[in-house]
Every structure is written in structure tokens, then in C-alpha cells.
Amino acid sequence: MTFKPVGEKAQWKIVFDVFEQTTPGDTVSYRTLADALGMMVKGDLPRIQAAARKAGAELLRRRDRAVEAVTGEGYRVVPAAHQISMAGGQIERATNSLDKGRDLTTNIKMDELNEGDRALVQVVALGFAQVATYARQIGRRLTDHEDRLTDIEQELARMREERNKS
Hints:
Strand order of the largest sheet: 1-3-2
Strand content: 5-15%
Order of helices and strands: HEHHEEHH
């Protein structure tokens, strides 16, 4: 039996088109997506979200544009500058996962392992620790960059305000 799509066009492609036509910074509501897909928000939200996740991943890969979920509303097409802070959130989550991996390898009953497994655990624990340290360094640099960007945006707003007063 061959796969047959529900409609003529895959649901994620329909959502991709909606996202692609959205101005960065604007939010696409669940209602808008439901209408585009011929669905109802109330009963079809998980299907809408699945299509949006796939469309968001493809939009990032194909068009260098990110999408973020807006709780209870829908999805925001992210301006390029905001993608930097989104990346920071990913670094933070990755660091937390690395910390957990390190904990799992450093807090282990070594006396229950054979010599080869003990050596492996030590190497893996060291690897987790090194990668977590590197991720934290990147996170700090990213935070510094975001702070500088905020300062520049504030200065630009001040300059525009002064220009408009003249």
C-alpha cells in the first residue's frame, strides 16, 4: 500500500507557505493556521502544532528564518536579531543536559563495574565536563553580544527620537 497525503499538499507545506508570507515579528494565530489547513483549533490543535513544527524546521533550513511558539496564541516568525537569543536558550538547555550526563557518569557505583567500564566512565565523564565548560563559555559570549545589541538598539531609538524632535 502506498502513502497518500490527506490533501493535495502536505499540511506542513501549507503552514510553511503561511509562515513564509508572514512579516518577521508578527504572530500567526492557531486560528489562521487552522483555517489554512481546513481544521478546527479545538479538536485539531495537536495536528496543527505538528505541521507547524515541521514547517518551522523547514523554514529555518530553507529560508534562514526561525519560528517560535507563542503559548496559547500560535507562532511568531522571528526577526533575525532574535534568533541570537533563541540560540542562547538552546545553549542553556544543552548545558543542562550535559550537566545531567556528567552527573550520571560521575555519580556511579564504580565498584560494580569492571576495569574497562570504569575507564570508559572516566573518559565519558571528562568529555561531558569539557563540552559543558565550552558551552558555558559560548553562552557567556552570547549574553555579552545580546547586551551590546540591546545598548545599540537603545542608542538608535534615542537618536531617532532626537531627530524627530528637530
